[in-house]
Amino acid sequence: MTAIVFDIGNVLVRWDPHQAFLPNLGDRSAVDQFFARTDFYARNLRADGGERFADLAAELADPSDAALLAGYVDRYALTIPDLIEGTWALMDRLRARGHAIHAITNWSAETWPIGVATHPRLGSAFGVTLVSGQERMLKPEARIFALLCDRAAVAPADCLFIDDSEKNVLGARAAGMDAVHFTDPDALDAALAQRGLL
Known about the structure:
The chain has 11 helices and 5 strands, in the order βααααααβαβααβαβα. The protein is α/β, with parallel strands linked by helices. It has 2 domains: 3-14 and 81-194, HAD superfamily/HAD-like (Rossmann fold), CATH 3.40.50; 18-78, no CATH class. A 5-stranded parallel sheet has the order 3-2-1-4-5. The longest helix has 12 residues, at 85-96. 37% of the residues are buried.
């Protein structure tokens, strides 16, 4: 195992989209209702695949809902307030052991620059970074794992992939990588130690 490939959202950076809408809607219950009305998570995944939030908002029949969704990019920094420092510490230890560090993230091309501006370490932490919205392909599609291997010049069998989504973990395994389902830094520490990586 020579390369460690990290997901970013809720592995290295906490993501809570509620925070972008709480100033307008007041509480998490109201935001959840907005998410249900607008099928927010499905639309967000489409943005991760390369679509623009303004276009996704234009599909909504209710003008107030459309305006809220269209403003999401402007409020995006509110959704990623904190780094998950325990995972960053593990990354630093892996790098010190000589492992290459890469990333594959399902993240909108529109909001990725905001993520890097909010947390500049995202811009320099990885040898290869694949942002789904820029590549217009999503985890768990096999081709995004193949693209990482091509750009990083590694074989799938030489990669350990870490993601908080079980679906993405299964996709990585199907692509020939070892993979860990991330729950918290302590559990990841144990999984890395079990593999002799730390």
